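Run Thyrotropin-releasing hormone receptor through structure prediction, thanks.
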Amino acid sequence: METLDENATLFGANGSEGAWSAHSVEYKAASVLLVLFVCGLGIVGNAMVILVVLTTKHMRTPTNCYLVSLAVADLIVLTAAGLPNITESLFSQWVYGYGGCLSITYLQYVGINASSCSITAFTVERYIAICHPIRAQSLCTLSRAKKIIALVWAFTGLYCVMWFCLADLEKQQYGNTTVISCAYKVSREQYLPIYFTDFALFYVLPLLLATVLYGLIARILFLNPLPSDPKENAKTWRKSSGVGKTKHGAKSSSFSTTATSRRQVTKMLAVVVILFALLWMPYRTLVVVNSFLKTPYVDTWFLLFCRLCIYLNSAINPIIYNAMSQKFRAAFRKLCHCGPQRSEKPPTYSLALTYSVIKDTSNGESPDHFTTEMEELPGATEEFLPGKKRLSFKEPSLCKSTLAEA
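Sure, done. The structure for Thyrotropin-releasing hormone receptor is below.
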């Protein structure tokens, strides 16, 4: 990431022109302990996100696929940027050689850029699912999400190839000491256009897009809690089939649950975007300011703070999922064997969702592979059909009769 320019100064010129000194014991202790704690927490948390989505059938939704992509990108950032920072703090220079300089620099940028693109992808997916629910039937599917994620990683992987040509080892002599750093081949002036292009594509534009889209989403969710979407058509189906005789209170309760679930998922993803903006801001601001200064500001403690914010951004997302998503919390507990163990069953859906889910299966997707908020409705079936048998997708006769009626 953009730490290399500062690395060359921080680790290559730690002293006066004629003398060089290693970092203080206080700095080494603080840097190693804090980076180890944040990166360790993030590596475990993001690995758990990947495991619970891949191993739990009802967690494999389009939104969660984007979260897996984000988790993989964060793992790359934590391992390629965070862990090498520990050795640099201990030895005050680069210790991974020329090959390590090229590969680690490349992975740093791939992780950061893929993280930004994954955030943009699930923001657009949320916008389509909530503001254009009819189009979401064909656009917000699991297969399409996988294709978009593949394009994200292919684009970022190819875009970042240039860093193999831009990174190189740099040796600086301080008296009898030679200090090796991983720095840029090109001069600072030549690097600035590259940095500002990267800054605009993977920070400014994603945040501007997220601001606009989440504003539109908030207008739908909070000003119109129950927007008109395909689920509304289920009302007509229920009346024509006699199911509409259920109590009005049960209907209102289920639609309220739908709106609440949508808000919960959207709030969680909005928090991820906000933290991305805030935690990257100190370092982005530092590099922009240093771009216009003759002598860059590279205070070691402030630079450590900026780096810790970056690592924290990659480590905190699993904590957000656990705090704000009941499904993720239950999946994490099951993975850790905490709490009561229950056999995994396919989620049941209320009749209010039957039209949307069955129509989605016509596109080749499993009922489990619909949008996240549709899977956050525990007990909805009982509200619509109290005392009656649940509608299960394992019963072909029910599915056929439902499609005939719809």
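Strands lie at 167-174, 177-184.
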